[in-house]
Amino acid sequence: MDDSTLINAAQRGDRQALDQLLRKHQSRIHAVCRRIAGNDADALDATQEALIAVVKGLPRFDGRSKFSTWIYRIATNACIDELRRRHRQPTPGLPEYEQADPTPMAASAPRDPAETVTARIDIDRGLEQLPQEFRTAVVLRDVAGLNYNEIAEVLNIAPGTVRSRIARGRRQLIDVMNPRSSRNQPGPENRQNKQADE
After folding, report:
1. By CB count within 10 A, which of 7, 19, 55, 91 is most buried?
2. Which residue ranges form the domains of the chain, and what is each CATH number?
3. How far apart are CA 13 and CA 191, in angstroms?
4. Do residues 38 and 56 make contact, with C-beta atoms less than 8 angstroms apart?
5. 48 in Cβ contact with 34 (< 8 Å)
6. What is the pLDDT of residue 172?
7. 2: which residues sit within 8 A by CB, 6+ positions away?
8. Which residue has the higher pLDDT, 128 or 157?
9. Helical segments of 38-156, H only
């Protein structure tokens, strides 16, 4: 069944439809929470809180936005709330690699299992070093697969701000994962360094 059929049935009190709807989206909610939180314990807590919030809020869901956008907003808020409750920034931790649904980031990773695991560890470590506003935007785009307007709706910011945060976040992620890459980019300071080297 598609989301709208499940939503309508769940809003009428059909427990099976509600369970099916939650199961359908749980792994992607957890993937988003895992990448934002930076560790499994906080991600599991945030995922659970997000699913509870979805159940409580479902009667008020009116379909003005896509259901996936609505649940990603709930998941993002639950994750940020969990981090605030714990009064800490995301902490490093190794991710779970047996994820049911491949994410866009994982899909672009090498196909060799050892390289895939290594690449995902590197991505997770890089994401942990990004400021939260950049990390959240990048995760919603590259893990959740939301478009810029959907991310703007989830984060309650302008689409231009979303583009900026994603661009800056991706640039910082590249710099963190490959420190030499920032030296190879044309920029005023790098051009001066290159001219000085010649």
Report:
1. 7
2. 3-93+104-189 (1.10.1740.10)
3. 64
4. no
5. no
6. 93
7. none
8. 157
9. 40-57, 67-85, 104-107, 113-128, 132-142, 148-155
